[in-house]
Write a structure and sequence with these properties.
Blueprint (H helix, E strand, L loop, with lengths): L14 H16 L14 H12 L10 E6 L2 H22 L2 H7 L10 H4 L2 E8 L1 E2 L7 E2 L3 H18 L3 E5 L6 H5 L6 E10 L17 H4 L4
Antiparallel strand pairs: 1-2, 2-6, 3-4, 5-6
Helix pairs in contact: 2-6
Bound molecules: flavin mononucleotide.
């Protein structure tokens, strides 16, 4: 180690393998679907732990890792979250969302009933930390918390999918109730609630979710 740096561990691959892996990654990720109908089959805690470690390996502003993951399997806490979320969702679907947003959600067929918050074996409440630092317990200002947490959430969802689990990214609005229920400080912003488990037998997904933009639609090349 010189000057606070260490040699990079970089695993170079032959070009054919690079291409094959790029294709395989796309094929695997493209089969991920947001699920809203979960089985109550248990899922081992170690799988959730490994997925959270994967999320925690994500890049972040100044490497402050401005995230906290509350992993919940307690039926009592899941019930509290369901009750609080459904209260917010009732107001949301009763009009707080506004006509344009409700219209955008129509093809998904969602409503204010969120039974999966109790049925699924795991909920992961992800919090974004406004203050922190590279070491646990630091209290410095954090930077780019939304970008950092968004990337970490992507890692988390990909890791859970790769482990053979289904997820739902749930965002009851507002979801400050998560701070109270999960005993997180006010300076942490509830970021996402990820529902994790097996899909219920015969689970269906909206056709709307299968519409994905083409490479031409989402990219430009110079
Ligand atoms: C930030 C974010 C918030 C979301 N919030 C909800 C939600 O509250 N409830 C829900 O049923 N789906 C929610 N979703 C899931 C989207 O509806 C879903 O990703 C989209 O319809 C595409 O489907 P797919 O994930 O199967 O590709 C959310 C997704 C994201 C990325």
């Amino acid at each position: 180690m010189t000057d606070g740096h260490v040699p990079l561990k970089f695993n170079e691959l032959p070009p054919e393998e690079m291409l094959a892996r790029a294709h395989q990654m796309y094929e695997r990720m493209a089969t991920r679907r947001t699920v809203r109908d979960f089985s109550d089959r248990p899922v081992a805690r170690e799988i959730i732990e490994q997925a959270i470690l994967t999320a925690g390996s994500a890049p972040s502003g100044a490497n402050h890792q401005p995230w906290h993951f509350a992993a919940i399997q307690s039926p009592d806490i899941k019930l509290q979250i369901r009750e609080a979320a459904e209260e917010e969702e009732r107001a949301f679907y009763d009009g707080r969302a506004g006509a344009e947003w409700l219209d955008a959600l129509k093809p998904l067929g969602t409503d204010d009933h969120k039974p999966f918050l109790e049925t699924a074996p795991w909920l992961i409440a992800m919090f974004a930390q406004r203050r922190g630092g590279v070491h646990a317990g630091d209290t410095r200002k954090n930077y780019y918390i939304n970008e950092s947490c968004g990337i970490a959430a992507g890692f988390l969802i990909a890791a859970l999918h790769e482990a053979g689990l289904a997820t739902l990214t749930h965002t009851p609005k507002p979801m400050n109730f998560l701070n109270d229920i999960c005993a997180r400080p006010d300076e942490e912003k509830p970021f996402l609630l990820i529902v994790v488990g097996y899909p219920a037998p015969g689970a269906q997904v909206p056709e709307h979710a299968l519409i994905k933009k083409s490479l031409e639609d989402i990219s430009s090349w110079f």
